[in-house]
Amino acid sequence: AQSVTQLDSQVPVFEEAPVELRCNYSSSVSVYLFWYVQYPNQGLQLLLKYLSGSTLVKGINGFEAEFNKSQTSFHLRKPSVHISDTAEYFCAVGETSGSRLTFGEGTQLTVNP
Amino acid sequence: DTAVSQTPKYLVTQMGNDKSIKCEQNLGHDTMYWYKQDSKKFLKIMFSYNNKELIINETVPNRFSPKSPDKAHLNLHINSLELGDSAVYFCASSLWVSGELFFGEGSRLTVL
Predict the structure, then answer these.
(1) Is B58 in contact with B47 (CB distance < 8 Å)?
(2) Nearest to residue A83, comparing CAs of A36, A15, A13?
(3) Which residues of chain B carry a pLDDT beneath 70?
(4) pLDDT for residue A95
(5) Quick check: B41 and A106 CB within 8 A?
């Protein structure tokens, strides 16, 4: 069975600074990888996904992530954050063999002025 | 047009009561889910249905009973509510089991 670890539970940054939210996964087979964002009092929405192909994936709102198979990581990055990026971010993994998605415990990104 | 909609958005009730949450998706997906998000934001899968058939049933008290009348609807009924049931319950759907999930906006249940 797969598992996901989000290495930071909270990440405070200043506006316009770069940010990286770290995600490591464990699986014995090929995987699909996702990042979701949850704004306060809302549901989760997809930021980006890796299914196959290019390991650098671009998503909405200027976010991107890189799939690193050898390090089993899928870190999320943004070169310059805005106050509006303040939210909870979830990494998720699913196995191509058809298992359900497993979510990490979330990282609270707080962007300060 | 909302893709995954769930009602009600807020539920406040007393311990011991029974309540239901309804979910509908208009994406044409075959698989639907119920997730529970606790106060620490941890997401835990509860149930999943594929084409009206139960395929995932996590360790959930049998006070929780899902029902899928058709593949576009998945309801959750909770009997004898307890304080620990207070959480946000999310409905979601996907085209296939390990594919991208589309979430509803959540139903916040508060048990007093």
Answers:
(1) yes
(2) A15
(3) 1, 98
(4) 82
(5) yes
User: For residue B96, how many other CB atoms are within 10 A of its CB?
Assistant: 12
Contact A42, A88 (CB under 8 A): no
Q: Which among B45, B90, B100 has CB closest to A100?
A: B45
Tokens 């600074």, residue? A17
Task: Give A46-83 pLDDT, tens digit per residue.
Answer: 999 998 889 999 999 999 999 999 999 999 999 999 99
- Determine the Cα–Cα distance for residues A39 and B90; give it in Å rounded to an integer: 14
Tracing tokens 């409905």 back to the chain, one arrives at: B91
Q: pLDDT at position A17, please?
A: 98
Give DSSP secondary structure letters for chain A.
--EEEES-SEEEEETT--EEE-EEEE-SS-EEEEEEEE-TTS-EEEEEEE-SS-SEEE-GGG-EEEEETTTTEEEEEESS--GGG-EEEEEEEEETTTPPPEE---EEEEEE-
- Kindly state the tokens that stand for B4: 């995954």
Pull the structure tokens for residue B80. 């004898």
State the number of CA atoms in the 13 A half-sphere of A107 facing the CB.
26
CA–CA gap between residue A102 and residue B85 (Å, rounded): 22
- Under an 8 Å CB criterion, which residues of B touch A? 4, 33, 40-43, 45, 48, 56, 90, 96-106
